[in-house]
Write a structure and sequence with these properties.
Elements (H helix, E strand, L loop, with lengths): L1 H21 L4 H23 L5 H18 L1 H15 L7 H13 L2 H13 L3 H21 L7 H18 L5 H23 L15 H11 L1
Length: 227
Amino acid sequence: MLGTLVNCLAIICGSLVGILFKNGIPEKYNQTVMQAIGLAVILVGIKSALGCDDLLIIIISLAVGSVLGEFIGIESYLDKLGNFLETKLFKNSKGFSTGFVTAALLYCVGSMAIVGSLESGLTGNHDTLFAKACLDGISGIILTSSLGIGVMFSAVPVLIYQGGITLMAGVLKPLLIPAVVSQMSGTGGLLILALGLNMLREKKIKVGNMLPAIFLPLIYYLICQLF
């Protein structure tokens, strides 16, 4: 769990620095910076998505995963959690829920979160998560300066998500062949792309409800092995 704990600490520290910047940046600059971040996130998503050639698996995973996520209401739960924290802890913090949900999804759906957590659990190698921690800390500064303190609390779902993958890595190891990891990363890349679009557009894509799609290539491979 060391890699995940360092990652969460980096998000918190980056967010604290971002709060200092937020107080001194005019709103018009915040908006422009946010749009620039959105473009950068789109680029990251495209690069990750293009790393997989199994388009059919990705398409099916996105379609089925979106139905499952919509049925469960994942994004609704994330919004409710963000709104609850905003009401109880930060009544005067405008946009707390938006920052919380956006950052939580951005930090969790990338391939580094999956691969790094697996490496951490299987081999004790935390290098990937340490690298992710540096990236998340820097992005935490920028996101918090634009979206507010809600970004800092995204460290909680990151801890649960990456920690869960790390603890289950031993069980999942036989299923994590390169093709499956590539399919999961490609699907995650498209979700990152959708997050970038959300930063640029008023009409939002329900990325949270698409989260199950990332794990469907793994489930598909398991079913193929069983039958």
